[in-house]
Predict the structure.
Amino acid sequence: MNLTNCTRATEFIVVGLPSAQGMENMIFACVLLLYFLCLMGNGLIIVMVIMDHHLRKPMYLFLSNLSFIDMGHTTTFIPKLLINYLSANNSICFYCCMAQLYFYFFFGVTEFFIITLISLDRYLAICHPLRYATIMTSAVCLKLAIAAWFGGFFSIVCQVAMIANLPYCTSNVINHFYCDVGPVLKIAGGAIHVIEALGFLVTVVVVMSSLLFTLISYLFIICTILRMPSNTRQQRAFSTCASHLIVVCILYGSVFFVYLRPTVKNSSFNVIKSVSWLNTIVAPVLNPFIYTIRNNEVKEAVWKVLRKKPPAFPKI
């Protein structure tokens, strides 16, 4: 087929989630509930960090960044997915699809950097407590957070620009529930090998380096915990680390399965769509609960707000 005379597609059709006949309403309700839990849990963390000056510490600065990322990550595709269910119209405009693709990966890559910073913060706090305050100053934390956001911004921009310039002549049906790189490249014409290699390189460099750094940090943390004299402190620290590592395993495992593949032309996305839920919605919902459920400072901040009496208005 002559791709030079191809008319660029003005919109795509997103297949959506696999569903059984008559289960549409239940799926819609589940997606809406998970999205609401994600916004509520992550939004609560951001509000607590802003309102309570006791939470203005490096750990909570990074955690509030992670919460904002999770909210943005899910908002890039869930509202559109819910609208599609209500309207039975699965179309998305070309530039909307490219914007969704970009912001989805922008938030996703930035999340890996922030998780790495959280593991670094925990390593310094537990393994080097005497030097922690001098190393992790407010200025250093702010610079690290800004660097993470800029890293996410620039790591995907070239790949998305190249994808946007590809011809889409043979099909405009995306076999996914959002505009993902793999399904979009599968219907694209022209040479996609450079884009695939670039995406594979970004995945390996960003995800693998982030995972390696995170695992090494927690390895040192566990070694330090084992040397603690108190069994109670050991159990509490191990419990916290185990919950953090559960989130790490879910997030990194699903990303490896979905994106760490050399080619997409012969890929089947039915299984990938199911696995994608782990890093697109399950992890964002779990993050605020996992990182704060055993955190007494956050619990106290929440109870402070809940117990706070509303202002008394003068009677007229």
